[in-house]
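Hi V.,

Quick status before I head out on leave. The structure for the redesign project is tokenized and pasted below; the design run finished overnight.
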């Protein structure tokens, strides 16, 4: 494979990872706000996990303290 193709693939992989990270962060943030608004209490990480269908590990990574 040529160096040009490898470079393009690396850039595409990096861009995709950035998009996925951003989407997960936004999902967690919105879920916390929505659950807080609906219940009046700050949600648990497990509640956010169930609400967003993200893994607990992902929710913990982007948890807002």
């Amino acid at each position: 494979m040529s160096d040009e193709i490898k470079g393009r693939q690396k850039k595409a992989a990096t861009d995709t990872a950035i998009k996925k990270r951003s989407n997960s962060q936004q999902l967690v943030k919105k879920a916390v706000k929505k659950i807080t608004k609906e219940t009046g209490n700050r949600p648990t990480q497990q509640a956010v996990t169930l609400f967003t269908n993200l893994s607990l590990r992902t929710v913990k990574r982007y948890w807002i303290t």
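Above is the designed sequence. Residues 3-61 form one domain.

G. will cover questions while I'm gone.

Best,
W.
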